Amino acid sequence: MQKTVHQIYSFAEFTLDLTRGCLLRETEEIKLRPKSFEVLKYLAENGGRLVTKDELIEAVWTDTAVTDDSLVQCLKDIRRALDDNGQAFIKTVPRRGYIFEKEVSENGATTIYTEETSGVSLVIEETLENGSEELTEPPKKSNVAKLFGAIRQRKAAATIVLAALIVVIAGVIFYKPVLAWWFKPPSIAVLPIVNATGDASLDYISDGLTESVIMSLARLNPAGKLPRLRVSAQNTIFTFKNREFEPRGAGSQLGVDVVLASKMTQQDNLRFFKFELIKVADGSVLWSHQYAVSWGKTFARGVNANEEILALQNEIPKDVAAQLPLGLSDADRANLTRRYTQNLQAYDFYLKGRAEFRRFTPSGLRKSIEYLGQAIDIDPNFATAYWALGMSYRTQGLIDERPDKEANEKAADLFKNALKIDNAMALAVNSLKFSELDARDWKAIEKAGQSHPGYGQYLIATGRIDEQLENERRLLTYEPYAPVLNLFHCQTLYNAHRYDESIAQCQKTLNLVPAADRVYFGPESPWTHLTLGGAYCQKRMFSEAVAETKQAIEKAEDSEAMWALLGYVYAKAGQRDEALKILNLLDERISRGEYVPALNVAFIYSELGDKDQAFVWLDKAFEESEGRLLNLKTEPALDAVRSDPRFAELLRRLGMPD
């Protein structure tokens, strides 16, 4: 038997759980960084009296030299968590310190006993009066006698303990997995469905069905609350596509409890999908099933299909979820089996559009927009097609194939259309939140904190880039093989002027996957080559920088944006004539109506020493609502003009947060 003491502080509707290190509003956990939690804990423990800044820093940052800024940031986090803009909880005494104003009650220390009996862990909590009295160690007795002996020693808590015990025993007897879920959510990786038909043109079906199962299982997690099921991200999962791997080994690599492995085969006009749910700990098969789908009628574009494929996208996640320790409600089952279109041809265009999107190239995005537009034309109530089309437009802006302002406005309209059809669609809700970043609504983003999809960009915009780097490292501990997370980390390290680390991270990202079947996976990623070229450039390793940037241009299909960045490399290398040649090339393309991001042209003029032209193009970037202007405080390519007064004025016009 093991024993630990559990301490809790309560104030207003909040609970500060010292043992588990978390803050709760009623039953909902509110995220706080470790240092912010320690600051709140110290203030609560010293409620009602003035705590000076020096005292607080010494208590929380023992033996570590920090500035007042660290403390101020922690207090911002705490005020956001407590919704304390009016200082109802923590009063600031100017130039002196802080007073915790709310009455704090210590709910007694709680002793937690755990005993392992026949492979089942029973957990019993007993409240100690005034949080001070230790439970007397009982004499050697049977397990049951020891349990009830402990209860009798605290009659005041006996009723609560017995009720809790009944719940625990009921869970053990009738649904033991619920206990596991309570302490740690179960986790699953839906591995890519292997297309074993011998026809590579059918990849869009196997990939689309993989995505559908992942998205359906992820819908079991309520928005804004702790997840019930940890589902490995789609970008991570697709790093295993076209690779030889053993499912159990993949699950161990991803750190999940179970993996769903599957294969698509074909015989005559039947297509078979065989699934196995495998326990990673011992390799045992928990569940297996084979689905058969007949292909009868033919679409105009030569696609053989049948309505059974629509039913299949519902049946698979429902059957898989039934094998997991989740305790599904009727609402959960309805979520799992929700079908956004009844039209197979619309669904087929949707699958093709998503397959093209995953190529992440200029031509792939254009085809994606075409296919998804056709899906919506066939079924105007196809909500996920509106969301997917919005993502394709937004991504065109991200890779500089369309002005950000135009791309983001189109995307926002499409996300809103999706929400008109299904106002609870989490994908569209979260995607629409990027509009707050586009509008530079810093208060909304700061209030939402790390739950906001634009929070990382907000931290960079405020100059808190070290904090963002720490957040990225934390995410990468959970999803170490996610290509997009790894790429973002390359770029953040570059913006932090940590070029050696950025180079190492780029090289790691380029080697995540040996197969080059996705441009943003492995060695075929133009964006990783581009970031690597930029880091080499800042290190003055110009031959390497030119080589990497040229690779990026080739892999991104002769991208105008990347040609402009090659011009910047030449300018920084002192090859003025080469830089001017690229400026002339860009002028020709602009005259033909092709889009060239103004910010990239500004980089060239900045490095050539033509500050007036640099600010002309920075003004154009401002008019285009260029998203990368949010990196203005840290962007290395603008170091040459940072001291110019016009730079500070541009920051002011952008409304950049402090």
Core attributes:
single chain, 29 helices, 658 residues, alpha+beta, 14% strand, 6-stranded mixed beta sheet, Arc Repressor Mutant, subunit A, globular, 19 strands, Rossmann fold, 4 domains
By CATH, the architecture of the largest domain is named Alpha Horseshoe
How much helical structure, as a percent, in the residues? 40-55%
Strand content: 5-15%
CATH level-3 fold name of the largest domain: Serine Threonine Protein Phosphatase 5, Tetratricopeptide repeat
Q: Based on CA inertia axes, which overall geometry fits?
A: globular
Describe this structure in words.
α23 (526-538) runs parallel beside α25. Strands 12, 13, 14, 15, 16 and 17 form a 6-stranded mixed sheet that branches. The protein has a 5-stranded antiparallel sheet with strand order 5-4-3-2-9, with helices on one face. 52% of the residues lie in helices and 14% in strands. It has 658 residues and is α+β, with helices and mostly antiparallel strands. It folds into 4 domains: 2-106, Arc Repressor Mutant, subunit A; 110-175, no CATH class; 187-339, 3-Layer(aba) Sandwich (Rossmann fold), CATH 3.40.50; 457-463 and 472-654, Tetratricopeptide repeat domain (Serine Threonine Protein Phosphatase 5, Tetratricopeptide repeat), CATH 1.25.40.10. It is built from 29 helices and 19 strands. The radius of gyration is 28 Å and the shape is globular.
